[in-house]
Design brief:
The protein has 326 residues and is mainly alpha-helical. It has 14 helices and no strands.
Length: 326
């Protein structure tokens, strides 16, 4: 344990020292230029390491992935659009896309609803009770997705009938005299996928609640008081005054959670590994790359995901700029 802490500390120190050394050299290069050119070139030298890092760690891998999506399984020859066509023709992959769409349809909207509800209710508590409630609800955000999924596996765990149940839900079910239910195998109406979504909702509700609560507190008190004096009820005030004024924050939270859901992987990998019709696009990519060693299919899946995410990111950037200029 001590050696790991020391190794981490030394790595951080080495990284900071290297960054300082790089910027010291860049600053010296800028100072060596004639006076007028120093002021012109220095800003570009300072952002050059960041641009280089973006190029190496984002742009280059993206280009390579797009190129590999047009190659065969081992990357030895180009096959055009065959990877995309074969994936979309496969019933299992189409079902995977359907599962991912279900996650997209449910989780972002559910997080907004739960976040708004908790933020509005917590705002009515005393300051001390509000802090305690928000701390408890935000606490799952401090747990990694893998750790959360491991905990929730025990919630849904199933043991044979007549044996002690380690799962909380089956412990309750058997206490009332019923047989244990294999919760994560209930694929009818995607019940098991919905149970997995409950776990993600539990983890993301705190993020949604914190941002939405801050936005609600930013609504002018004079506007609310004027509405109350005009006879408006609290529910009408919430939907007609508060929600429209925090629309920007609602959209930001929605888009952020939407992108998280589109690339969801760890929750399903830990809890079901895609079995019982719970597979999603992120897990399918992992299986194609590390189980089937089909680099063409894996790259094609990433490109599909990239195509789906880019319009959402563009919309978010435009919305952010519109909010800034307003």
């Amino acid at each position: 344990m001590v050696s790991q802490v020391l190794s981490t500390a030394l790595t951080v120190l080495a990284g900071v020292a290297a960054a300082l050394a790089v910027y010291w050299v860049l600053n010296k290069l800028a100072e060596a230029l004639p006076g007028r050119w120093e002021n012109r070139i220095k800003p570009y030298l300072y952002i050059a390491p960041a641009i280089a890092a973006i190029g190496v760690y984002l742009v280059y891998p993206t280009v390579v992935t797009i190129v590999d999506s047009f190659k065969n399984s081992d990357g030895s020859r180009f096959v055009g659009l065959d990877n995309f066509g074969k994936l979309l023709e496969t019933p299992a992959f189409r079902q995977t896309l359907l599962n991912s769409l279900l996650w997209i349809a449910v989780i972002p909207a559910a997080c907004i609803v739960v976040g708004l509800l908790v933020a509005a209710l917590a705002d009515r508590l005393s300051p001390r009770a509000e802090k305690a409630a928000k701390t408890i609800i935000f606490m799952p955000m401090a747990i990694s997705a893998v750790g959360s999924a491991t905990v929730w596996r025990f919630m849904y765990a199933t043991q044979p009938a007549g044996t002690p149940q380690t799962g909380l839900l089956n412990g309750i079910v058997t206490a009332f005299g019923h047989d244990p239910v294999p919760w994560l195998q209930q694929s009818t109406l995607h019940a098991n996928s919905l149970l997995l979504m409950v776990m993600l909702l539990w983890g993301q509700a705190g993020f949604s609640m914190v941002l939405l609560s801050a936005a609600i507190k930013g609504v002018p008190a004079e506007t609310l008081e004027a509405a109350r004096l005009d006879g408006a009820g609290e529910l009408r005030i919430f939907w007609r005054i508060i929600v429209p004024q925090i629309r920007g924050t609602v959209i930001t939270v929605f888009v952020t959670i939407l992108i998280t859901v589109m690339k969801i992987f760890d929750v399903i990998y830990v809890m079901t590994n895609g079995a019982f019709n719970t597979n999603v696009v992120g897990l399918e990519f992992f299986n194609q790359l590390y189980t089937n060693y089909n680099y063409g299919y894996a790259s094609a899946i990433v490109v599909m995901l990239l195509i789906a995410i880019v319009p959402i990111v563009i919309y978010q950037i435009r919305h952010f700029r519109a909010e800034e200029s307003a």
